[in-house]
Amino acid sequence: MAAGPDHGSGPGDSPEGPEAEAPERRRKAHGMLKLYYGLSEGEAAGRPAGPDPLDPTDLNGAHFDPEVYLDKLRRECPLAQLMDSETDMVRQIRALDSDMQTLVYENYNKFISATDTIRKMKNDFRKMEDEMDRLATNMAVITDFSARISATLQDRHERITKLAGVHALLRKLQFLFELPSRLTKCVELGAYGQAVRYQGRAQAVLQQYQHLPSFRAIQDDCQVITARLVQQLRQRFREGGSGAPEQAECVELLLALGEPAEELCEEFLAHARGRLEEELRSLEAELGPSPPAPDVLEFTDHGGSGFVGGLCQVAAAYQELFAAQGPAGAEKLAAFARELGGRYFALVERRLAQEQGGGDNSLLVRALDRFHRRLRAPGALLAAAGLAEAATEIVERVARERLGHHLQGLRAAFLGCLTDVRQALAAPRLAGKEGPGLAELLANVASSILSHIKASLAAVHLFTAKEVSFSNKPYFRGEFCSQGVREGLIVGFIRSMCQTAQSFCDSPGEKGGATPPALLLLLSRLCLDYETATISYILTLTDEQFLVQDQSPVTPVSTLCAEARETARRLLTHYVKVQGLVISQMLRKSVETRDWLSTLEPRNVRAVMKRVVEDTTAIDVQVGLLYEEGVRKAQSSDSSKRTFSVYSSSRQQGRYAPSYTPSAPMDTNLLSNIQKLFSERIDVFSPVEFNKVSVLTGIIKISLKTLLECVRLRTFGRFGLQQVQVDCHFLQLYLWRFVADEELVHLLLDEVVASAALRCPDPVPMEPSVVEVICERG
Amino acid sequence: MEDDAPVIYGLSSRWARALTPQTAETDAIRFLVGTQSLKYDNQIHIIDFDDENNIINKNVLLHQVGEIWHISTSPADKGVLATCYNRSKCSFPRYLATRGSSDSRVLTCAAVWRMPKELESGSHESPDDSSSTAQTLELLCHLDNTAHGNMLVVGEPWGDGKKVICWPNNHILLWNLQESFQPGKGQLRFTSGRWSPHHNCTQVATASDTTLRGWDTRSMSQVYCIENAHGQLVRDLDFNPNKQYYLASCGDDCKVKFWDTRNVTEPVKTLEEHSHWVWNVRYNHSHDQLVLTGSSDSRVILSNMVSISSEPFGHLVDDDDVSDQEDHQPEEKSKEPLQDNVIATYEEHEDSVYAVEWSSADPWLFASLSYDGRLVINRVPRALKYHILL
């Protein structure tokens, strides 16, 4: 290789390779360093993994063999390429040389400065060694001196220690000797705590050395003073006026003086009782009948701060003082709390009972909340006394009573509505002017009841408000919502409403007549409205407001709806009966009181028939206000005309014609029987449907059947028969439009005329045309 | 077991309201029916029912004096019967047709009759044509009423006063109660009345408008009064044959009510099965839990009023001193649940039923009569009959 001769050339004169070559070279240098440190060449980054690392012809490879490489070059390459590679090689060698030189220059200075530093350190260490040697000798001297001094002082030290011990003992003795006077002083000053502490400190020593006469005397003195102290403490304790904390202090001191705990605890409780009873008395005084009782919130506040607070203090002090008493002591306290708590509850209940009538729920709930909240502290303190449970019970009871009260209120409101309606119904007749319409009354009643229900729900809802302390009790989360509010209040009210309404149907005879028919109608519509919408609305509202978590069975909406529907149906049926009865009575009187044999030839429709039509029209209007029209059998609008002709000419003729000839009585009978065969049986008092036509049909059926029965009981003269004929035709003209199936009216009226003809010894019917004229004139 | 089909008998184009069993007859089943017609001669049909062969035999008696509103038979003498009838003066249509009817008037009369001897015992003649066998009645006496206007014999409606006939000892006693009832100045319009079968027949109960009243015939004084017994007119009443203080009433309010006359404020029981006026109520003579009602809704209903009957369900108790045992009954009753129910509704009629009667001979058989002259004879369902007997 021709690179050799250029080896010496410096980096300065080596021409710089092309820019692209620089990183390549650096990488190469790195690769070598890595090789040196045993890192695998192949892992050098960015290097194309092309040539085999074992390839001896690889210039940069570890196994590079110059001979092989040269051979290969000479063998494979043409001259030009050889020349090129030679140039290339030379350039590379130069570059490498310059690199190497740079590195050497850079590191050389560092070596030199390092050598200097090491040399300097060598000098410093030599100096330090000398100083250390000097220090060691000095220390030895010091030790020697110190040993000598301690040896000299040994004797004195022991004496001083002894003297100090004597001094301490003497001080103790002095304390003991001074003790009686100190105690006396303390007692005089009232520093009982200090006195008890002194006594406590001296007690053991005195006890130990009591065989020595001098100590004996001191002990006796001390005992006398202590006895006095105890007496004074007791005195203070008994006087008791100074509140619970001081008493507790007294008891604590007495205990420290070794007084019997049993007796103290009795006494303590007795005192506490006295105080708490005082509180109770003041509460009772507030309850007193004559002065206006403060509102319930104030009352529970008083009770809470006075009694319950006191009880808390007593309990806390007791438990602190008499913790050593064990379960027996706790039991005593629990019994104490139970008894007084019971009396307190009795008072609270009396107060709450006074509140039952009142309307303000929020105040009551707040009072209950306070009451319940205050009792939680002693409840936690005295779990055994069951105060919290008892309080919860009271709250529950009050809530239940409240529900009952609201139910009563709702009922009263409903009855009040009914009274209003009665008055409104009666008023127009008195005043002679137009009263509010039925529909309006109905809307009023419905909305007023609904608002009452909502108000009650809102009032009751206060019991379950989140911020109220007892709302998370299981009763208020479950039973109160489902059984109390939903079942007891809402369902109970709807049921009682239905019952009240039904009771109007049950009242017999004249008493039933006292109920205005319009009220029956209105109630019926109200119940029907409840069935269709209101019940489900109210119950949904309730369920939403009171998220019922209880699983106990509740009355389903459908049952209530069925009840309401049944009530509505009964009311409407009763309405039909009552109205039917009114018209029946009119018809019956008119038939019974008339002398049909000696009546004159009919000139007019009788006034009573006009009255019947008028009343029926009035009823029609009344029912129309509240109920829908309903379906009637399709028949042409001018059917009155058509049926009239059928009824008066062909049918009537067919009926009466044979009766002129006595020889053929069969025909009449046969005809009527055949006719009956084809007509359906008429159920007179049949249940009605909820529409106007059905109601009117019912009323007209009842009236006409009555007319028929009455006619059958009388005997008619010829003109009597004709009068009946005229009357029936008149009814026929006006009544058909009210009923579902006008055929029914025809049938019944035919029957009436036929019966009248039977009851007439001289049946000469009037000419249909004359009948018509009379009716049209009337 | 199947029940026998009802037997239906038509009065051949006569209207009728009056029906009675032949009370003195205890062997044969026999009913008397009076027709009501203004134009033709009225008749009394004697209906014999042959239970074994299910055949009806009839005999016809003429009753020419007028239409019959009510009929009753003597409980002692088979041949004696009383009718209550209207005699209309305008019974001559042609005459009136020419003269006008200005002076026509209807008179209500009552009379006691004796039927021909051969019919008394119900000799089973072959039923021929009715007109040929029609026989006449022998008039025993008129119950004169000219002084008192209209008259009422044992429950005939439309009377201002009342006369009651009873047959205690085979001879007729006529009680004229008119004077005793005067205080109302004729305002008391009795619609119905019945003799109490108890107390040696000294009590009568009457119905007027909505009120029921009990009378003691010895002192002619009111014993009890049930005001507003029904919402509307009281149509009929009947005494429980076995329990002396119990009676049933029915009226225009479609209800049948059972009363204890010792406590008249509340009915013991109320039935509301009919859909129109109830015209008739009858206790079965021997099994008083069976109550029959007829109504102008054309239905006859047989009810089983076990809870207020003298017989505990399934037991027969002596008819005597039943009322004393009332207190003990609840224990016995508790064994079997009692249910008052409707046994059957009979719908054979097509017109208003104005009369229902139990047979005096067979306690399981009854007849009902509707206005169109149809007489239906029915039996108590056999299952029930055996249940009561066994």
UniProtKB/TrEMBL annotation, chain A:
Major localization listed first in the record, in broad terms: Golgi
Record's protein name: Vacuolar protein sorting-associated protein 51 homolog
InterPro entries per the UniProt record, alphabetical: Cullin_repeat-like_dom_sf, Vps51
Pfam families: VPS51_Exo84_N (PF08700)
Job of this protein: Involved in retrograde transport from early and late endosomes to the late Golgi. The GARP complex is required for the maintenance of protein retrieval from endosomes to the TGN, acid hydrolase sorting, lysosome function, endosomal cholesterol traffic and autophagy. Acts as component of the EARP complex that is involved in endocytic recycling.
Protein location: Golgi apparatus, trans-Golgi network; Recycling endosome
Keyword Transmembrane helix carried by entry: no
Gene responsible for this protein: VPS51
Keyword terms, alphabetized: Coiled coil, Endosome, Golgi apparatus, Lipid transport, Protein transport, Transport
Skewed-composition ranges (Low complexity): 1-15
Region (Disordered): 1-33
Cross-referenced SUPFAM superfamilies: Cullin repeat-like
Superkingdom to which the source organism belongs: Eukaryota
GO terms under biological process: endocytic recycling; Golgi organization; Golgi vesicle transport; lipid transport; lysosomal transport; protein transport; retrograde transport, endosome to Golgi
PANTHER family in the cross-refs: VACUOLAR PROTEIN SORTING-ASSOCIATED PROTEIN 51 HOMOLOG
Assembly description: Component of the Golgi-associated retrograde protein (GARP) complex. Component of the endosome-associated retrograde protein (EARP) complex.
Coiled-coil positions: none
Annotated GO CC locations: cytosol; EARP complex; GARP complex; membrane
Record-stated family: Belongs to the VPS51 family.
Lineage of the species this protein comes from: Eukaryota, Metazoa, Chordata, Craniata, Vertebrata
Automatic annotation (TrEMBL), chain B:
WD repeat windows: 227-263
GO terms of biological process kind: positive regulation of endocytic recycling; positive regulation of retrograde transport, endosome to Golgi; protein ubiquitination
GO cellular component, one term: GARP complex
Keywords attached to this entry: Repeat, WD repeat
Biased composition (Basic and acidic residues): 325-338
Region of interest (Disordered), ranges: 312-339
Entries under InterPro entries matching the protein: Beta-prop_EIPR1-like (IPR059104), EIPR1 (IPR040323), WD40/YVTN_repeat-like_dom_sf (IPR015943), WD40_repeat_CS (IPR019775), WD40_rpt (IPR001680)
Entry function: Acts as a component of endosomal retrieval machinery that is involved in protein transport from early endosomes to either recycling endosomes or the trans-Golgi network. Mediates the recruitment of Golgi-associated retrograde protein (GARP) complex to the trans-Golgi network and controls early endosome-to-Golgi transport of internalized protein. Promotes the recycling of internalized transferrin receptor (TFRC) to the plasma membrane through interaction with endosome-associated recycling protein (EARP) complex.
Similarity annotation: Belongs to the WD repeat EIPR1 family.
Protein name: EARP and GARP complex-interacting protein 1
Source species: Microcebus murinus (Gray mouse lemur)
Organismal lineage: Eukaryota, Metazoa, Chordata, Craniata, Vertebrata
